[in-house]
Amino acid sequence: MPKLSSIIDDVKRRLHGRTPAEVVSLTLKTVRHTARGISPAAARARRADQAFDRRWGTDTSGTVNLSALSVARDRALLGFGYQASNGVALDEAVTRAGIDPARYSFIDYGSGKGRAVMIAAARGFQRAIGVEFAPELHDIALANGRRFTSAGGSSTRCEFILGDAGSYEPPTGPIFAYIYNSFGTVILREVLSRLETRAAQGDPVVIVYVNPLNRSAFEDGQRWTVAADRSDWVLYTPAC
Ligand SMILES: C[S@@+](CC[C@H](N)C(=O)[O-])C[C@H]1O[C@@H](n2cnc3c(N)ncnc32)[C@H](O)[C@@H]1O
């Protein structure tokens, strides 16, 4: 829980040079945000977020803003910060897709500290790959992957690639792509263009889009069909 003195310092810093109306609005927002952070529901969510790490001795929980990471500013402006998946959507989407993970390469576009990649490795995907552009998160993911494997989490090796999702060339063969609200439409379209090429070459491609805030990137070009539509994830397959 944040200390009262640090909350006051934060409020002072944010209010400096503001008009009275902005002061009132920002103060209310800060109070609401702080209240949400100390609510029982927030405490439950924090405990659930930390459960994976308690079990495997990894470091995947918490949130990280892109402004705190060493990423190119023009690309950071097109992306979103770090927060780990809980694995529920991944499992539901694999079941709904009806695929045999042992035939598919799992690719997490914007893999952060690697939790989704580790979960995919444990589910028996042929390959479990994560692409992350922030070196700080990539290094943590590498260490997590080693800990997870040596603690018996999976026999599939976790592969972490440092780079921009938009320029990552996926491997040949069946692909199960996973995107947890990592970036907006510009980078989504770059990723989709490469996956469309794979699909056109005859490789089976399935994409699960979790927290799907930018569905237009998939649905405007009519190249992807909605195979399943849940409130918090959408499953896409190639339109033809
Ligand atoms: C919401 S987190 C998801 C983390 C992970 N996929 C998971 O499910 O646990 C989004 C991640 O995408 C990364 N990201 C954002 N833009 C990116 C880009 N252009 N290329 C690679 N990674 C990116 C962020 O650094 C962050 O780690």
TrEMBL record:
InterPro entries: SAM-dependent_MTases_sf
Domain of life: Bacteria
SUPFAM superfamilies to which the protein is assigned, alphabetical: S-adenosyl-L-methionine-dependent methyltransferases
Protein name per UniProt: DOT1 domain-containing protein
Organism: Sphingomonas olei
